[in-house]
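User: Structure tokens for both sequences below?

Assistant:
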Amino acid sequence: MMKVFEKIRDGILDVVFPARCVGCGEEGYYICRRCEGFMGESALICPLCQQSSLTGERHENCGSLYGLEGLASMWEYEGVVKGLLHTIKYNGVVHAAAEMVWRAYIDMADDIMRFSAFLSYLFSKNTCITYVPMFKKKERKRGFNQAAVFAREIGKIAGKDVVSLLEKIGDTKPQVDLTKEERLQNVRGTFRFNAQYSKPNSEKIPNILIPKNLVLVDDVWTTGATIKECCKVLKKAGVQNVWGFTVARTP
């Protein structure tokens, strides 16, 4: 019923407030074809040392028991990309996320050599999708979790289940104004694994097993503190492999 309501709401919004380009205001799309050329592609990096990686995979010499296997970030977090993410996150235009994810997928398919490792992992048989959770009080106030919205859109494209494997158990300061060290401290111990998934024959969700491979979705990668903390929790719970995906990365 909620999904039906969301579709009706989005349809009304499209009529009353038609999509306008965040770059120039042209009606029709949230990023028009002209402004699309200003979406700067993000260089792929090793998620551990954050140095260049041709395919976004972790460097062999950057071993970590609880680290990400790779990171795929599509665009640099600036200009029209930053504008559209703010439109989604702070103006509540959540249906714009579908346009953004489809653009990301098309761009990745066009640049298959760079994104081959991530796409192969995403479409492999044993891969599921999860996302960085919000503190419940904040999510209720905003009305949605943008990371979950992006995760569901990716799931539609890849034909993958999206599972809520993580919970945020503590409120934290906004990461934007913190130093790298403060960001790490700010998120430490604030996430936990959703216990209902750790029992294969639980009454709540029968026969749900901990996934072997996961794509962990968030909107923006800055220092990676949040995703890395989530990855650590997932791997301690039994997940074997985790790739990170963010729509954008701070240059």
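Moving on to the next sequence.
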Amino acid sequence: MIALGLAVGTGLFLGSGAAISIAGPAVIVSYAIGSLIAAIIGACAGEMAVRYPVRGGFGTIAGKFLSPYAGYLTRWAYWMTTVTLAGAEVVAVGAYMAYWYPNVPLWAWVLIAGGAIFVLNLTSVKSFGVVEFFLSSIKVSAVVLFIIFGLALVFFGLPGQDATGVSNLTTHGGFMPNGLSSIWIALAVVMFSFGGIELISISAAEAKDPVRSVRSSAKAMMWRLATFYVLSLFIVVAIIPWTSAAALGKDIEGSPFVMVFTELGIPYIGGITNFILMTAALSGANAALYAATRLLHALGHEGMAPKVLSRTSSSGIPALALTVSSLGAVVAMIMAISGVGGIFGYMMALVTVCVLVVWSMILLSYMAYKKVEGDASPFRVFGGSATAAVGLTGVIATFIAMFFAGGSMIPSVLLGLGFFGLITVIYFAGVNKNISTSDDAFEEVRTVTTQVPVVDGTKQR
């Protein structure tokens, strides 16, 4: 539920307006394609994690099957993904709060939200899973209710509301008002929404039964994500003209979901929806900062970052790693104070650049893994390396699309590439000498997983 909650979040609730502005009603197709790419990534990561449920997940696996540098790059890319995501989420909190307090500056809400998650992460982590499960459940439940009421309004109508029908899908310029290529270009925004799909594999190291856990989680998440995203976007562009939703997306000033719920005519429903989405964004920021802190702490412990970052407080909290990982929220606040417009767009694009690198490494690792291991994993992806190649093609196509999307995309791409260039220089300047190439962890889990019955797709053999 937590992984599903992270994957269903601000990218859908707030960022979908930007995707609609690019593709119009055809954004439905963009999200369907995005769901397929995400499904491939999650399944490939899952197969490797079932075979090797090692700590460090796909980063450790990339280090073994590609190269130590690939493992290093993957883990730093994922750290930057989570750091920037935390910043994007607190900006989203500010955007939602503007619904009630339009005259309060954005930086004030970013400061309050950023400070709140920092303090929360300084406290005991024992309740983290419970809190995030609860908040993720609320978030997912909100989407389910949105789909139920939305479909009812589109096809049957509601008390006091006639059925809207699907005419909005073809009016205002047609189903593809910006041409066929807009479906592809919209992927630059759409794929941000699927960040979190890779968490399926990370949990394998702590699962009592990795095969059953990953298989059930992967199958459920793929179908739920595809259903949630495709149906949700269908409802949005069916109920309100895509041009109205697109207007929100230009500056990320509000959520198309709030606009749709407001159309239902239920008293206070717009405000209630906005509150749920604001809570979801705060939850996402908290989870992202938590993940970034643990990732940086692990990097310090394994010699891929300064050793001082591996230190913990008397209560076991990696306080220094937490402070450094708060960089995304700090940068977001500085940008807000400076009056920079479209902050969420910049941060969303940077998250996309970084997560595309992570996904590329996962798929390349999988292809290298299949050459060595073949069908050794108890859980297998249909099509194997060929399926991974399709996913990799989609990831590369998304990266290229970012250059055509314009706006905040290109500066964020260049910043992301600059970051990867910097950590690459640092790696070859000496970090590579500190990284262990021991296969002890793999040998330990290999003995266990070879005794597990084989599962091909979802069927037991």
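User: Anything stand out in the second?

Assistant: The CA atoms of residues 74 and 358 lie 5 Å apart.
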